[in-house]
Amino acid sequence: MSKVELNDKKIQILEVAEKLFSEKGFEGTSIRDISKMAKINIAMVSYYFGSKERLLEALLLYKTSDLKLQIELLLHENLEPLDKVNKLIEIYINRINCNRGIYRILHFELTSKKREENLAAFTELKKGNLKSLETIVKEGQSKGIFRKDVIIPLITPTIMGTFFHFHMNKPFFEELLNLNTETLYNDYIKNSLTKHIQQTIKALLVYEN
Amino acid sequence: MSKVELNDKKIQILEVAEKLFSEKGFEGTSIRDISKMAKINIAMVSYYFGSKERLLEALLLYKTSDLKLQIELLLHENLEPLDKVNKLIEIYINRINCNRGIYRILHFELTSKKREENLAAFTELKKGNLKSLETIVKEGQSKGIFRKDVIIPLITPTIMGTFFHFHMNKPFFEELLNLNTETLYNDYIKNSLTKHIQQTIKALLVYEN
DNA sequence: GTTTAATTTAAACGCTTGTTTAATTTATTT
DNA sequence: AAATAAATTAAACAAGCGTTTAAATTAAAC
Fold first, then answer.
1. Of A161, A61, A178, A32, whose CA–CA distance to B193 is shortest?
2. Which of A8, A89, A172, B32 has the highest Cβ tally under 10 A?
3. Cβ B160–A161 below 8 Å, yes or no?
């Protein structure tokens, strides 16, 4: 069996690694933790991926492949600008929420280190997504629906940032909002939090003084 | 000399710890790193703070002690609700921007429940700040200025999250917005980013369908 | 069925970690 | 000046780390 392709066992390791990295951080997670939870021998990580660092690389590539496509598809749908924005928010939140771990790593773990070869691919992804958002917003502006003094590159930080801050303070909000179970927590994100972000961005885009 | 109070040497250790924690994370920073950079003996950290975990605790308390006071002062100022919200945002952003390191730690390291329990004091701080925000918003609602279907606990995530996402993607926005120098970057935060957040929250609070 | 390759394993490697010890230096008090 | 307390140090500690080894097991090829 090849060591480059992703077989079931490698994927299993990646899934466990994502879970643990997102819970305890990259440095805070040991290969022994991973191998124990994935029920494989410690040496298998090195055997499959070469090193812990290369495991992280493989994990990033594994998880960040098809978001761009999803957004570009939305771009060409026949929808009103506001509906497109709302759907974009939904895609973003759902996407990040389903891949919490990897986005946590991307935003916090990777920025602290000097991993520019990995960041380059990710930067291109971000630029493309911003371009898509710009297209949607300018469409709404030219239709006279959206106001024109909005700084478009700062919209994404508000969307993503709101989610991240919420999720990063998970224990705090779990207690505050009585989200005792994982289901309750996920439902709150899917409904209330997503709605809050949509409401916020809508207000920002269409509100007139 | 007492071990509880903060003398110059303890403060020196805390400053170094903040710098290294923010650069390399909590797990990624060793006590040897800290002691080397602070030019003290390895044992001094344990001697002064007891453990690495308690050093983090001391660091958090050291850096987040007077924010609560600052916000409670604002609460009793004679200002319109919207002006209070705007000033609150200004306080938050300025505050976080001046203490980037520590807030990075807070977001990055405090996600695990286990650690959150150790830092109950900080949770209380957050609750108090939320209470203050609630007071301001409800004041605006009772005056008929703010809409009433806003989820107040989600306002802070939008304020803080927007800043954090921006700052976490510093290299990306530096290139995108041509913020070539540190001064340009800081000015952008102080002016454009802060204004964007204020504009967003204002729209969220006063926008009517 | 034998040979060859791929997978899996337990054990050990060298190194770093956070913390503790006990001795020494420095400062304070009597 | 002597006695006591505080600060600082080098060294050692056990535990955990990522990684490597070499042997054992399983699968594939001939």
1. A161
2. A89
3. yes
